[in-house]
Design a protein that fits this description.
By secondary structure, this protein is mostly beta strands. The protein has one domain: outer membrane lipoprotein receptor (LolB), chain A (Clam). It has two helices and eleven strands. An eleven-stranded antiparallel sheet has the order 6-5-4-3-2-1-11-10-9-8-7.
């Protein structure tokens, strides 16, 4: 199986894992009314393949807005996953935009054999993928909630509402100028072994809005070690995503 096909399969399988965490109507849960959030973060600084955990300052956490304290309408993201295998290092970089009804993503997979790039959209119940020849392919009747995968604030909030999320305070941090509270995230109960990349790791949550600005995770298997860093920015800045065709 090619890395291109593997990436597409990974996207949909991982989405299904996330959707199993909680009912999709969690997005309609009323949020706390809060003062206006601070100005959006400046241009995102993509993490490099050798990204290390962000430094935190230990000590009591200041009063923080609850996780997902404000509704997320849209944001931009950069996710870099570094896989270390016996055969070498593979790097997957995904960057794009997310809204409540759509998602746009550019994926670059770098291996010893070269680099593969592809672009994808999920708009409503349709998925659009660019094949290796650059032509757009359409998949009909796609669950419109598949794109929930790329919203760590929503994924974590869904698990928290079920009572299965454990957040251990680590201190405070700054992510691209945004003051955050850092936690070690873990799950329990039926979600303990669900496998979602956003339920096991270090999460940096904005003190003023409850949104996830950075997530760090590491997974190990017999012949594979994966490290990932996701950065989120430009929350609720009026992002519009349209289908490519």
């Amino acid at each position: 199986m090619t890395r291109y096909k593997s990436a597409m399969i990974w996207l949909f399988v991982a989405s299904l894992l996330v959707l199993g965490l909680a009912a999709c109507d969690a997005m309609a849960t009323p949020m706390h009314q809060l003062p206006p959030s601070p100005p959006p973060a400046t241009a995102i600084q993509p993490p490099g393949p050798t990204s290390t955990p962000l430094a935190t300052v230990a000590g009591p956490l200041p009063t923080a807005v609850p996780l997902g304290g404000q509704s997320v309408e849209s944001f931009r993201f950069v996710l870099v996953i570094t896989d270390t295998l016996a055969s070498g290092i593979d790097i997957t970089r995904q960057e794009g935009e997310w809204t409540t009804t759509a998602q746009h993503m550019l994926t670059t997979i770098s291996t010893a054999e070269g680099e593969q790039k592809t672009e994808s959209y999920i708009v409503g119940n349709q998925a659009y993928f660019q094949d290796p020849q650059g032509k757009w392919q359409v998949a009909e009747s796609v669950n419109p909630e598949f794109h929930t995968l790329m919203n760590p604030s929503l994924v974590l909030k869904q698990v928290q509402e079920k009572g299965d999320l454990v957040l251990t305070p680590l201190g405070t941090s700054m992510v691209n100028g945004v003051a955050c509270a850092a936690y070690q995230a873990a799950t329990k109960g039926e979600d303990e072994n669900v496998g979602s990349m956003f339920t096991q790791g270090i999460v940096h949550i904005g003190l003023h809005d409850g949104w996830v600005y950075r997530f760090e995770f590491e997974r190990a298997a017999l012949d594979l070690n994966s490290r990932g860093v996701m950065l989120c920015s430009d929350y609720n800045t009026g992002i519009v995503i349209k289908a490519p065709m």
